[in-house]
Amino acid sequence: MKPTIVLVGRPNVGKSTLFNRLTRTRDALVADLPGLTRDRHYGIGRVGERDYLVVDTAGFDPVAKVGIMHEMAQQAERAIEEADVLLFLVDGRTGLTPHDEQIAARLRRSGRPLYLVVNKAEGLRREVVAAEFHALGLGAPLAVSATHGDGVTQLVEEALASFPLDDEPAEEATRGPRIAIVGRPNVGKSTLINGLVGEERVIAFDLPGTTRDAIEIPFERGGRHYTLIDTAGLRRRGKVFEAVEKFSVIKTLQAVEQANVSVLVLDAAQDIADQDAHIAGFILEAGRALVVVVNKWDAVDDYRRELVKRDIERKLGFLSFARFHYVSALKGSGLSAVMKSVDAAYAAAMANLSTPRLTRVLQAAVTKQAPPRHGVFRPKLRYAHQGGSNPPIVVIHGSALEHIPTSYTRFLERTFIEAFRLKGTPLRIQFKTAHNPYASRD
């Protein structure tokens, strides 16, 4: 079993930078601002022949009792309970602070193996920059630079030295479908994830913008593996002011593109906004399978429910391929049905479509409704085959196909979706026109 290294420290000491260095990724959002990370962020690191888990945590305030800082501290506390090794990061350029002393007192009580890491030591003499941190009584401080990688390998090797090597062959983790949870701020995305996972895995707080990074959460349900991705709420472009929020938006859009299925969360207590339609449009443009969840259904009366359904039909009618669910993430009602639709959407997105059947469906569609003429010629659709998945791509071969109008393409898309029961995923059609050997002759 892989040992788990947990990074702990006050805000802005470089935990996320070290996380990215250890995992050799850019998964954790990094900026020169305190309090950027708010949830636990997991990754896999490797040193030599040894793999290990590494956990990034929010800036830790062990004495916080209320508000978002308390919620961040609770996330850090859960990570500490899971740790095999704790790396306590401090800032070598700022020096020792009372906040560091509070954290040291809490970590000392944890009983976990603990290493004091003095970060941001680039360009400085290590023994000098680490000197004042001896006062914490946590052993010899280890000076590193997470940004430049100085001393990081030696740090990890020392931290893992007491753990035996796993002789079993490494197995690739089975993560199953990747599911991005997206929507506007404060619609209940994090609450939905906590309800699905069955624990307070991410911070769910009544404050827009609580989630800033895209947090990947592997979990198992009904014997099947999934990876949920909690994302930052997407506001209208004109209301995105902070640099951090702009980075969060980018991470959210990347999460959608890298997912297999997107779950669009709407708020039943609010009107369906243009921004909801914009988010849905991006998911559709990315070609991702989709499930729509209308949250907080328990908080509205029958009159409001009817208004919401009419609003959805009017503003989100282009999502007719997706399944809609009306749930209460806080109470956990309706979540099992959501996961069944996610499974169905994933299966549809990854479906294998046989060439003979695709061609038969195509020929039946042309017989039912032939493409319109272009001048004296009518486009001829001869046969079809699958060109890709997630989303399914149907490649149609024939002649004069460049003249097929968009309306007829949509007719073919609906026909294939109905014939193959591809509920929950968009479908793309590509036309390949055969070369005419006589086109160049007079």
Question: How does this structure look, described?
Answer:
The protein is of the alpha/beta class. The longest helix is centred in the N-terminal third of the chain and has 16 residues, at 67-82. The chain folds into 3 domains: 4-160, Rossmann fold (3-Layer(aba) Sandwich); 178-349, Rossmann fold (3-Layer(aba) Sandwich), CATH 3.40.50; 355-433, 2-Layer Sandwich (GMP Synthetase, Chain A, domain 3), CATH 3.30.300. The N and C termini lie far apart (74 Å). Helix 3 (98-108) links the parallel strand 4 (85-91) and strand 5. The protein is elongated, with a radius of gyration of 27 Å. The chain contains 12 helices and 15 strands. Helix 11 (355-368) packs across helix 12 (406-420). The strands form 3 sheets. The protein has a 6-stranded mixed β-sheet, sandwiched between helices.
Helix-strand blueprint:
Blueprint: E1 4-8, H1 15-23, E2 41-47, E3 50-56, H2 67-82, E4 85-91, H3 98-108, E5 114-119, H4 126-130, E6 142-143, H5 152-160, E7 178-183, H6 189-197, E8 215-221, E9 224-230, H7 243-258, E10 261-267, H8 274-286, E11 289-295, H9 302-315, E12 323-326, H10 335-349, H11 355-368, E13 380-388, E14 393-399, H12 406-420, E15 428-433
Parallel strand pairs: 1-3, 1-4, 4-5, 5-6, 7-9, 7-10, 10-11, 11-12, 14-15
Antiparallel strand pairs: 2-3, 8-9, 13-14
Helix pairs in contact: 11-12
Q: Please tell me what the overall shape is.
A: elongated
Class derived from helix and strand content: alpha/beta
Amount of helix: 25-40%
CATH fold node name of the largest domain: Rossmann fold
Mean pLDDT comes to 84
Enumerate the spans where pLDDT stays under 50 for 5 or more consecutive residues. 30-35, 168-174, 205-212, 238-245
Sheet with most strands: 6 strands, mixed
Please report the first level of CATH classification, the CATH class of the largest domain: Alpha Beta
For CATH, the homologous superfamily of the largest domain is named as P-loop containing nucleotide triphosphate hydrolases
Summarize the helix and strand pattern as letters: EHEEHEHEHEHEHEEHEHEHEHHEEHE
Q: Please tell me the CATH architecture of the largest domain by its name.
A: 3-Layer(aba) Sandwich
Helix count equals 12
* Spatial extent as radius of gyration: 27 Å
Number of strands: 15
Q: What's the assembly state of these chains? A: single chain
Number of domains: 3
**Biggest sheet, spatial arrangement of strands:** 2-3-1-4-5-6
Content of β-strand: 15-25%
- Distance between the first and last residues' Cα: 74 Å
